[in-house]
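Q: Hi! First time asking for a complex rather than a single chain. Here are the components, and I think there are four in total. Is that enough to go on?
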Amino acid sequence: MAIRPAEQLIHKAAWLYYAHGLRQDEVANQLKISRASVAMYLRKARETGIVNISTSTQLFTDDVMARRLEDAFKLDAVWIAPENAYVADPSTDIAVLAASVFLELVKKGDRIGVAWGRTVYTIADIMSYADLQDVTVVQLCGNLGAPYSYRPDQCTMEIARRLNAKGLNFYAPLVLSTEELAQGLRAEPVIRDQLAGIADCDLALYSVGAVDADSHLVKCGALTPAEMTTLRGQGAAGVIAGQVIDASGEVLDCSYNRRVISAELASLRAIEKRLMVVQEDSKFEPLLAAIAGGLCTHLVIGAHMAERLLAHAGAASKKAS
Amino acid sequence: MAIRPAEQLIHKAAWLYYAHGLRQDEVANQLKISRASVAMYLRKARETGIVNISTSTQLFTDDVMARRLEDAFKLDAVWIAPENAYVADPSTDIAVLAASVFLELVKKGDRIGVAWGRTVYTIADIMSYADLQDVTVVQLCGNLGAPYSYRPDQCTMEIARRLNAKGLNFYAPLVLSTEELAQGLRAEPVIRDQLAGIADCDLALYSVGAVDADSHLVKCGALTPAEMTTLRGQGAAGVIAGQVIDASGEVLDCSYNRRVISAELASLRAIEKRLMVVQEDSKFEPLLAAIAGGLCTHLVIGAHMAERLLAHAGAASKKAS
DNA sequence: CACGGCTCTCGACAAAAGTCAAATCAGGGC
DNA sequence: GCCCTGATTTGACTTTTGTCGAGAGCCGTG
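A: Yes, that's all I need. Here is the structure of the assembled complex.
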């Protein structure tokens, strides 16, 4: 891997252009290639993360609402994507913001836990490339052989690819048919090590799932709509890394959860920075549950969700007094 | 400082352009301003560090020579600027590299010690802007009221400005006329605190000065050429943060050093990352002294200097065996 | 309220960057 | 040795971006 000559050229071109501020034709002269090639190399440099263009996400934390949310829910940092939408599609707006925030939080040498879901995959897909050495991306929960492109291992691998990092997948099914089998599998050295390593992460990226018939768990066949309804009746409030949690953010005591191979919530809570991203307004309750369970220290949401959260916090504190 | 409306616009434009990848005219439409204004805002955004464009400096560490130097001198990382010069002025080449390396090493919340000299000022001058919150830049040594633009406080302030950080100057003279006065001044609470705080830095940036008539110390009137010659005779090998060191990298026992107000070498050594940048080939011996004294963990030099260092290391190890 | 002085904004032009199809090159297989 | 394949490079063209001077808005001042 000792830097191929082509890569060397990309590096040099990027260096002259971005660090020294030469124009493309000047770079072309220096390197004795055509300007068109320089343009091409520069694109590659951007795509591979040899150059990093990042925009400060301050604007979105500096908001008064964000500050109030931080206080109300004891969060380390909150980013609010304006709903009025600068841009055509409002839901990608949150994802773009989340990707920037994520890249801002990652540091060299970090170990990053990644869960799965449409949100996470959208973020991965939209995230720009970076050239982090010594970063490991680990998968937080077992796999689902779904026809979706956002399978847990896909999310992990895609993010690893973007960061130029090592991806650590684990190939156990997310959910098994019997509790015994799940228990046995969890005890397998390969799996056990992977699960144990999760608490060592420096940063986690996940969203929270809703407990309804539209949930990924249903779509992927892990649960039937009927089972979902039953779980809801039993107090299920959300889904984190494939596990069903109740309104207080604890694992719901149910057969399904006992059959799941995924990160223990305690391990997740041991991770210093837990970045939760929520796109859909419908995930209000699941988000509340996740926050209640201390599963989130950094939060990226839309303006509308932010307002609901604040209103809720206000009502709660009024009731308390 | 609650974000002025103009700044808000800059942020939004930068966000749409760099994060969402819209074209300038699309951004202009969104924000209902002319495209020319957008271009202007974007320039401001780059200038103020709202967007960060950084290029990986890997190319310069990945060099075989750099690795060998790291081994030979037990350094954490070495960057070598190719001498053949991509670009017109070879000395700025090193400074540009140093600035990039520096920005790569800085992290949020860091405390950064900055010394002074032409090299440091060149770096400050060339360094691109960044938007680091919670960063403090502290001055490592007393001031010299020189007509030069690279006074210690200037270096500190300029770097602080570029990083959007807090600058902590200290207004004591670098050198006093009597040892008693220096001692008294060092005991002053303001000065004492500043000096004590140096060991808490996470990162230091300095160069090393030569012990000759061209030295800054002479140009700024701190020492006469004759005194310099005398010091040289007494074993002076280099200048670090205004202090004269011997070949082993220890403070030389001389009146001048006792009259200086500057960071103790022990404090400097307590700093985790000590980034030393050397532009001039003539500073070979001073650099050796600084390395010997453990005053440098990260090193940025030119190719020629790198060769000399390696040759020296080779000769030394041959002699030893 | 009229007047500079100031900053901000715009339109038009010039410069730079992006793109694409054609040409060239390298290397492997026959 | 020759031809084919795929990747790289290039010149010519188009689109996008940077810049500049003119004009518009905004204030504090006389």
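A: Chain A touches chain B at residues 2-3, 8, 11-12, 14-16, 18-20, 22, 30, 45, 49-56, 58-59, 62, 86-87, 93, 96-97, 100, 107, 131, 133 (CB under 8 Å). Let me know if you'd like any chain examined more closely.
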